[in-house]
Fold these 3 entries.
Entry 1:
Amino acid sequence: MGKIIAVINQKGGVGKTTTAVNLAACLAYKKKKTLLVDSDPQCNATSGLGVEREGLSIYDCLADADKTPSAIIPTAYSELYILPSSSDLSGAEIELAYEEEREFFMKKALSRIKEDYDFIIIDAPPALGMLTINIMTAADSVIIPIQCEYYALEGLGQLMASMRSIKKRLNPQLEIEGVLATMYDGRTNLSIQVLEEIKKFFPDKLYKTVIPRNIRLSEAPSYGEPIIKYDVTSKGADAYFGLAKEVIDNNGGRKKGG
């Protein structure tokens, strides 16, 4: 069975989509069959891999789980697939609220294809609404990206409370996969101080890998490419290769069926 990892932070601008896209690409580069699920109505993970938004999307799969296999698109990169998003997903919050078992639609959609992949990476929207609840109910674990800037830990208490509630009521297996420091600039005291605060808050879950501020990481999405395609020699590419290695090592070198 595949491992479903959601990349979640209700704050915007923390490197969530950048992490989802580039972690998925690096896992695939390391020969792990990987599916990226774009669950953000802004569709940035979809465009970040240069995929045109046409045909079925995750929105259709939430409405009918049988459509999931048909909605998955192979990308230009070996071992990397995407389940694209759609702007229609913005209405899912309201639509799901009136459904029975409304927290389980994502889980039903992904259960059809989970065993086909080593890793399924979900890019979650920057909110703690019904869609994110669905994602955490479906996921095995969560990666929390935290930017090394002012107010970095703001709102994390609410996220952790939501996770505890979902673990208790809906998904007993849900765990923190890891916490990722992003937008780090070692030349500034602020970044150094914030990283120390994150270590205190998550002493056992912080990845050794730190994602630096890197102009090439910022440029890559506008070209519809992950960083390892746009500039494999960049510090950003090195960092996401390091993160992928940590994720693989933490999961026992996971391979399909293992």
Entry 2:
Amino acid sequence: MDKPIMTGSLESSDCLITLYETDTPIIEVDTIVHDAFHDHILHLIKDVLKHYDLEHLSVRIQDKGALDYAIKARLKAAIEIYEDDSNG
């Protein structure tokens, strides 16, 4: 991966996902609902990465109140782009 992959937006009720490679995987969660949902979002991202066997990648999420299905969809879209880039 030459450059980070970004999906989503910073609009209300959405999130911006940045997927990138680093020497040590990092998951950064920046959310407007930090106290209530930081840990939940972190586990959600870890579960999706584990499902795709991509735990070696780093993710930054800038969440503006997105629901789980939106977070998963944005992350899965970034993963699809990553896999297309890696295979082609």
Entry 3:
Amino acid sequence: MSSRKVVILHNEVDQHASVADQDVIVQRDAVRQALCEQGYQVEILECTLNMQNAADHLRSLNPDVVFNLVESLGGTDRLMAAATLLLESMKIPFTGASTNAILQTSDKVSAKRLMTVAGLPTARWSTGADFNSHNHGAVSRAIIKPVWEHASFGMDDDCVVDIAAVPDWRTRLRDRCVNSGCLHFAEEYIDGREFNLSVLEGDDGRPVVLPPAEIDFSAYPTEKPRIVGHKAKWCEESFEYQQTPRSFEFAGSDSPLLQQLTELAATCWHTFQLSGYARIDFRVDHAGTPWILESNVNPCLSPDAGFAAALDRASISFSSAVDQIVRRAMSLP
């Protein structure tokens, strides 16, 4: 048991905020309960763009470590790194990824460029010009995504575009940028299976890749894009939410693929110099080739989310994992 003080830092959430934004409160409460079970002293601090106010409160609280749950600031995920910049400048240990890792992974286009340089498989993309050509063949379908925003922000079936049938897809891309007020890009749509692999930093600092989970799209009609859009994540009454369960059960024939995904997840961890915990998302095409979608350095810690489910599958309690994350932030064995 520990008597160390932990401040849980999270972005301020308005009572009228969306379900997606309010989820950080669910995470906060789950982490607080886990920390209390492990004997930590726990304080809560909401963070806004008033960095001076946050700094003053942190000095007053004088924590041994901060559990960082800041997912966005000022209404955009793009500014989440402001919180870790503050913590680094104050030399306060904190959980999860460094500012550099957050910036490299949160900008999905920059992350894809880095993966390409590192030789990691990632789908082709475009910010409005032709798709980059690090592999061969024409791009037939694309999915339009926000560059900086996460949690399937604004994503629906209309995000998937048939390039041949919609020759003005660049106009569709520009419209998404204008209408949402957020920068978007187009990524090659990989028709096939989707996997999430959660990763926990071990005692030796090396990544421990938890059991792979697959999103089950088997109930989707043939013509419906197989994506985990906004409804699938946040609208409990929707068809998409109810018909995208995760599964940890696989046929023996999947073993080589699962091993490959595990190795790629660990390579992503090292490539982006991640720490604490993370989740790596994949698509696997019909030929069995895996493609990395993104590295999520602050995956959802809600009890019903994928990270907690992967911990349970690995027979690791949520409270012990939270303790592990905190101890690694303080570089304790």
